[in-house]
Design brief:
This protein is an alpha+beta fold. The chain has helices at residues 38-50, 101-110, 126-131, 191-208, 228-234, 263-281; strands spanning 11-16, 28-33, 55-58, 64-65, 71-77, 86-89, 92-96, 113-114, 135-136, 139-140, 145-151, 157-161, 167-168, 171-172, 178-185, 187-188, 241-242, 245-247, 255-257, 290-291. Bound molecules: flavin-adenine dinucleotide (FAD). Flavin-adenine dinucleotide (FAD) binds at residues 22, 56-64, 78, 97, 122-125, 127-129, 131-132, 134-136, 170, 178-179, 209, 211, 215-217, 290.
């Protein structure tokens, strides 16, 4: 009997991952798995563990670079309706871990609930954004999280309350493998004014970041509060190219990729930037982007 027995409807083989990421680069996943609910996720995670198949979870693919070889294991996506529901109850909003944050922000703003409009222009899923505390100058997702439901790598469900969670600059202390849903603590507000604020933030991002290019957002973490983009700019690296990958001339912490680029071009460009910044400015840049 195959290890996949009973899970055939949710497992696809050799699925290209590039279209599922914002970089649009990289090879296929050996297995792409889209469980229909948490019980099925737990069951397949247990089966993958028994088979010792490496497993990872893909959100919106907005902070990821997939290598040209792809992923020789299982990639799980929370695309099923069970992981994409939004429930509004007073000033609390519960959203599934697979939910697209851009859609969630529009929905809560329309409902007259403020607090997440700071995420306008930050692509990703609820789970992916909580994992790395997505945000920026206007605020971050972590400051609104009340509670999350998680599953560990053995398939066990658990809950984390606000007091158990620490959110810092682009990181959280959430180690559980899967973030399945989150409850946000929101503030009632005027829908028109919230929509205006959301639009302002989005316009600001559009004017300062290459939002329409293929990228993964900021490539490097800021260094002791100093913008990595400013450091790369000072090192004179804007516009530097390797193959089809380029340091954005609009925002030096973005690498933008041409459609014919290879993931290897981006990886080489990352290494080149790291060594040039180290040599010229004695600063060690640390990637923010996750590389598979
Ligand atoms: C144009 C552009 C602009 C951006 N601007 C910003 C910005 O202003 N601020 C900012 O913070 N980020 C920014 N980013 C980066 C990106 O939006 C964030 O990192 C976001 O959190 C990625 O979420 P995701 O769901 O796409 O995660 P993915 O890229 O799919 O995954 C990233 C990591 O999170 C893990 N993960 C994904 N889903 C889950 C889950 N359900 N449970 C547990 N782990 C999970 C993955 O395994 C992986 O390790 C930008 C990206 C782009 C492309």
């Amino acid at each position: 009997m195959s290890w996949q027995s009973g899970f055939e409807p949710i497992i696809k083989h050799n699925v290209p991952l590039a279209p599922l990421t914002w970089f649009r680069l990289g090879g296929p996943a050996k297995y792409l798995i889209e469980p229909r609910d948490a019980a099925e996720l737990s069951a397949i995670v247990r089966r993958l563990n028994e088979e010792k198949i490496p497993t990872c979870i893909l959100g919106g693919g907005a902070n990821l670079l997939i290598s040209d070889q792809g992923v020789n294991g299982a990639v799980i996506r929370l695309t099923a309706p069970a992981f994409n529901q939004v429930e509004i109850s007073g000033a609390q909003v519960r959203a599934g871990g697979g939910q697209d944050v851009a859609k969630l922000v529009v929905q809560v703003v329309r409902a007259g609930l403020g607090g997440l409009e700071c995420l306008a222009g930050i692509p990703g899923s609820v789970g992916g954004e909580i994992r790395m505390n997505a945000g920026g100058a206007f605020g971050d997702i972590g400051s609104r999280v009340l509670e999350i439901s998680v599953m560990d790598s053995a398939g066990n469900l658990d809950t984390r309350k606000r007091d158990d969670m620490v959110f810092e600059y682009r990181k959280s202390n959430i180690n559980a493998k899967f973030i399945l849903s989150a409850t946000f603590d929101m503030e009632p507000g005027n829908p028109e004014r919230l929509a205006e604020r959301m639009k302002e933030i989005w316009m600001y991002k559009q004017n300062t970041q290459p939002l329409r290019a293929n990228s993964a957002g900021c490539i490097f973490r800021n260094v002791n509060g100093k913008s990595a983009g400013a450091i790369i700019d000072q090192a004179g690296l804007k516009g530097l190219r390797v193959g089809g990958a380029e340091i954005s001339t609009q925002h030096a912490n973005f690498i933008v990729a041409d459609p014919q680029a290879k993931a290897a071009d981006v990886i080489e460009l990352i290494e080149t930037v790291k060594s040039r910044v180290h040599d010229t400015m004695k600063i060690d840049l640390e990637p923010e982007v996750v590389i598979w």
